[in-house]
User: Fold this.
Amino acid sequence: MSALHVRTLTQLADGLRRKSFSSVELVSELLARIEKSQPQLNAFISVTGAAALEAARAADQALAVGGGGALTGVPIAHKDIFCTAGVRTTCGSRMLDNFVSPYDATVVAKLRRAGAVVLGKTNMDEFAMGSSNETSFYGPVHNPWNPQLVPGGSSGGSAAAVAARLVAAATGTDTGGSIRQPAALCGITGMKPTYGRVSRYGMVAFASSLDQGGTLTASAADAALMLREMAGFDPRDSTSVDTPVPDYVAALAQPIAGLKVGLLAEFFDKGLDADNERCVRAALRVFESLGARVREVSLPSLPLSVPVYYVVAPAECSSNLARYDGVRFGHRCEQPRDLNDMYRRSRGEGFGAEVKRRIMTGTYVLSAGYYDAYYLKAQRVRALINRDFIRAFEEVDVLIGPTTPTPAFPLGAKTEDPITMYLNDIYTIGANLAGLPAISVPCGFVQGLPVGLQIVGPHFSEARVLTAAHAFQGATDWHSRIPAGYA
Amino acid sequence: MSAWETVIGLEIHAQLATRSKIFSGSPTAYGAPPNTQADLVDLGYPGVLPVLNAEAVRMAVKLGLAIGARIAPLSVFARKNYFYPDLPKGYQISQYELPIVADGALEIVLEDGAVKRIGITRAHLEEDAGKSLHEGLPGMTGIDLNRAGTPLVEIVSEPDMRSAKEAVAYMKKMHTLVRYLEICDGNMQEGSFRCDANVSVRPAGTQKFGTRAEIKNLNSFRFVERAINFEVERQIELLESGRAVVQETRLYDPDKGETRSMRSKEEANDYRYFPDPDLLPVKVDAALIESVRATLPELPDQKAARLATQYGLSAYDAGVLSASRELAAYYEELVRAAPADPKLAANWVMGELAAVLNKEGLEVSSGRMPAARLGELLGRVQDGTVSGKIAKEVFELMWSHGSSADEVIESKGLRQITDSAAIARAIEEVMAKNPAQLAEYRAGKDKLFGFFVGQVMKATGGKANPAQLNELLRSKLRG
Assistant:
């Protein structure tokens, strides 16, 4: 047993460059692990084995002559929300079950140019709407720490795949916590960059003003390595920001002594599980031991995040998902009687219950007579939340708090009650509404289940956030733990 | 005096003459095979994003400056949500609450020569939709998305027009303006320039607006006039018979010459407008405005005023000649070639030249009658080589043979006879042939002078110099 799978992305990239092993060897081992894991985890929707092996062979050839980029020959997986040319891109929905993208998302193209080898497309909540991966048309993903539990969502497949070391890194998207929450529940590192840092071109839209692509990896160092290749201005995304991408990997070496850490007072509310709180407070002591100065910070508008989010996100989703009409691509019902019948049945059959719920909510809040009371008011509160963050960052360098209220919960436990499910994102949504970079890192275990610590920074402070997380991981080993059976 | 007053506002849609679409790189050329000018952005594929064409913004600013409007430093694209097969994304990207252009005006000249100011509420940028095709597709609907994403500027007027004629005058004026600005090709058959008309009537002398109907998609001046006139009659008939006008959208059927209901207010879509999160607000700063201002041409009204002053033309003639940049340029080139009589040049452009161009469906810019060539002919009129009447004959030959004035005059022997002896000889021959008429004339029947002029002209093939002929004839007839 070569046990290449336990190595981090950084270690794999180094090993390949030093020719300690070949990309073909590595890819073959991981493909076998993926295949074996599918019945238990269901982390993948599509596995592109043949193409991966072909790319691995090409990578080995490039490496043999000393060529290649930062990730040449390194296997990764993409959340099935990123369009991949010639490969099915389902977004976890029956609506796109037959959709083979004719083009690559910018993120996909950039990672390919960096040399990464794509093993497949990971499972996810339908159109990224969910916090448990239970809304996927392809069935739920199971948590590698306990298959009875959810992995979190919506990037549940990517999180489970990395946690089970089926792949060292995977892409994800985060609209309200969809990278950080599953990372916390699966015991890995999940990084959501600043809104506009990573191109959204080719990332199937859920809520355009909140969606941001990011990474799911085993460590902050891996996140830095991967994000450095993904980030950057894209002329095809008007909301991407034209500001230079720092060398996140080089930044990791900086010490964090003197770092001003704000403890997010509003996150230590009655919804926070006592054991989770204990883990997070212990993590703060680690930061203090590293020379950081911790103080409490209050963001009074932050508790309004969930209601604001559940107006803004559905509003945008109701419009973004209007293009799935059965006309040009995606699911079309059999034998439509007329145009309206085609619309009704194609959409009725193609979308699942949670997607429909959000489309209806969004349609309602944008309707004449309700727009001011819901959408406009939500946007005003969003501006207040943003202002709270900006004010807080005048006093501290980063904000720290829990990623989720509780560890992973059982499959089916919250599917009957959308509100309970929505409250899972209570600590993550703020960073999306304000467009801030945020990372979740493992900070302890409760009854064998990982707990996530969240670090939020000001706009475009990815280097600082990653460096803080990396320092924490240098002083702890929670992120190195691998679920039994996958080590 | 009618008991009813008509109130009309127009929403003009002008396709901007950008090379590529407003949010994608696809070409905007008209008439290509279906769906060959639509890329993934135009098709609304999953994951694609719009990127604003900066040229479309410059064109909208240009229009705003030309109508004396305010250019918004910040304007916002919104999504207008509705389902239709030719609308790929399920929403149209348009500007709603914050348009790029607001508060402008255009002046029109009424039939009695009075000038009227038509207010322009706003002009905003938006994308066009595709087309549904039914021909040759029994039981099916085809979708052609070539037009989807073509940039439009929608120009919304105030309800300032009071008759179909005023509406047409305003639309023509705007048509002239957008072509002057080179922001729209103005091709109405291809739908590059079209309008929706909001029409209502109210008792003459009252202030409150009547209930309006919106007539959609009128793509010719004739249709605008007919549709409005039909609609006004329809509404007056309803009101006079004690019924009410229903607020609704109507379609004009050019074959039947009538409007018919398309959908009522109750059936109208709730478009659920909201700012498009995929696009940043459009910023127009002073530098951009000034750089666009520097490209503004002489505008139609300015040009007409200058032509009138510079060349001593009537306001009407100056207006006709400034109907397009090409026509005005042609006229001025003609005057440069034959500077002695600008009024004569105007008459030729609006008369003979306009007639043949019109007959053959050609534009002045077609090059069939270069201004220099026509100028040569006018020079021959001015120097007395040919009379005005013969010049028309020469012009026709020049047009049909593509030859120069001198070639035609020489080869056809059309040079005017200015030799007094030759004219006198011709007069004497005519007098000798018509002794009876001569006697009558001399007996006091002055009217016969014209008869003798005609006969001499006939005898000289129309080439006798008219002034000399008159003078000689008068003295010879006197005896």
Observations:
- The two ends of chain A are 12 Å apart (CA to CA).
- The interface with chain B takes residues 82-83, 89, 91, 96, 99, 101-103, 105, 200-205, 207-209, 235-239, 315-316, 318-319, 321-323, 325, 327-330, 339, 343, 363, 366-368, 371, 375 of chain A (CB under 8 Å).
